[in-house]
Amino acid sequence: MGEESIERADIPAERELPVLYRDEELVAINKPHGLLVHRSMIASDASEFAVQLLRDQLGQRVYPVHRLDRKTGGVLLFALNERMNSLMQQQFAEGKVQKTYRAIVRGYTPDDLEIDYPLRREDGVVQEAFTRLKTLRRTEVNLPFGKHPTSRYSLVELQPTTGRLHQLRKHMAHVFHPIIGDRPHGCNKQNKLFKEQFGMDTMLLHAQRIQFQHPVTGHEIRVSAPCQAEFERMLAVLFAD
């Protein structure tokens, strides 16, 4: 079975997207791994998209105010009208939305780390990029890898203060702790190991929480998403103790 068909197994069979938060102008869902946010020419194999599914589910037009990679699961926020879409996109652009992710990565990461490493866009423009890392747990698994008799992994919390394309994936690869299941920025040998040993072919990156001030009410909004089944399964396998 190919990579994309395995990843799409996380998409609910009934096509109901889990709603985490909703008011008159905003709605947040827990996006499954493998689901595109919207139609893309570079993913012609996809036939379903979060925008389309949520529109049909709610019976009204929805506007994604930010993006998640196809392989990333977790909190995805939509506006329910053009005005709110503009206001929320402005907050994202100004760095006023706090985003928190969880990831399982190769190796033992430091307790805390600040990754200040500019990233180059496809058009050659170099942009500043900054990520804060906090290690939540570490594990050593009785699984030989290369010359090593065991394998080491870390569960980390990541907070990007900029929103560059594939920022977390590229930053973790830059510090030699690639996210498990990431292609092409991760470790292909580790990805193959997880597929062979655990039948796992999902990128272990989860958008856990977003926090922002509601543009209309002024209230502090905090939306969290539980990890999805495959992420939870790998947490149980790797961090059993």
Structure described in brief:
This protein has a single domain, classed as Pseudouridine synthase.
Description:
The chain is 23% helix and 30% strand. The protein has a single domain (3-238), classed as Pseudouridine synthase. The protein has 241 residues and is α+β, with helices and mostly antiparallel strands. It is built from six helices and twelve strands. The model is unreliable at 1-13 (pLDDT under 50). The chain starts with a helix and ends with a helix.
Q: Would you list the SSEs in sequence order as H and E?
A: HEEHEEHEEEEEEHHEEH
Kindly provide the radius of gyration, computed on alpha-carbon positions and rounded to a whole number of angstroms.
18 Å
What's the number of structural domains? 1
CATH superfamily caption:
Pseudouridine synthase
How would the global form be characterised? Answer: globular
* Count of extended strands: 12
Distance between the termini: 32 Å
Largest sheet: 10 strands, mixed
- Give the rounded overall mean pLDDT: 90
Portion in strands: 25-35%
CATH topology: Pseudouridine synthase
Helix content: 10-25%
In CATH, the architecture is 2-Layer Sandwich
InterPro entries: PsdUridine_synth_cat_dom_sf, PsdUridine_synth_RsuA/RluA, RluA_PseudoU_synthase
Keywords: Isomerase
Protein name: Pseudouridine synthase
Organism: Larkinella bovis
